[in-house]
From TrEMBL:
Protein known as: Polymer-forming cytoskeletal protein
Pfam families registered for this protein in UniProt: Bactofilin (PF04519)
Family note: Belongs to the bactofilin family.
Stretch list, region Disordered: 1-48
Superkingdom of origin organism: Bacteria
Polar residues: compositionally biased ranges: 1-12
Native source species: Granulicella cerasi
Signal peptide: none
Length: 170
């Protein structure tokens, strides 16, 4: 019989274990499903690894790092967080070029945005500037003024030419 949480019998990688259904005609019982971690790239920071710039803070200069960032204050300059998420909160006011894996706009952004994955402008959000991303989402009620350049993930800055296209590499 299966007995959970016995000392010394914990496997190296915990996996849900299911007992074999009984042959005596009883209904099989299974262990409840455990919540799994969100599937994300290994480069992205864990949910708890997020820095915050609060409402009363004003930052002027260049921001760079290796964790996600939530901005609810004012930022002027440049934001470079490759592989991470930048969220501009409802009170956030950003006058900067932003480069990140994912950018979520709930406040106001004035500057160009480059995202390796996606840019999401929510209903309360405002973005004035050019956008380069693999995906973009603009909710009803959001404000956007600028150009959009959709690029496939991993395309980089190189324009498609016959010598560097995937067909020529083969």
């Amino acid at each position: 019989m299966w007995k959970p949480n016995q000392p010394g019998t914990t496997p190296a990688t915990p996996e849900p274990q299911r007992p074999a259904p009984s042959v005596s005609g009883g209904a099989p019982s299974f262990e409840p499903a455990r919540p799994t971690a969100p599937t994300s790239s290994p480069v992205s920071a864990a949910a708890g690894d997020q820095a915050t710039i609060g409402k009363s803070l004003i930052v002027k200069g260049e921001l760079s790092g290796s964790e996600s960032l939530y901005i609810d204050g004012k930022v002027e300059g440049a934001i470079n967080l490759p592989g991470n998420r930048v969220t501009i909160g409802r009170n956030g006011q950003v006058a900067a070029n932003i480069s990140a894996r994912e950018i979520v706009v709930l406040g106001k952004v004035r500057g160009n945005c480059r995202a390796a994955d996606r840019i999401d402008i929510r209903a309360e959000g405002s973005l004035t500037g050019d956008v380069i991303a693999a995906r973009i989402s603009i909710e009803d009620g959001a404000f956007f003024k600028g150009g959009i350049d959709i690029r496939k993930p991993g395309a980089g800055d190189a324009p498609k030419t016959p010598e560097n296209s995937p067909e020529a590499a083969g």
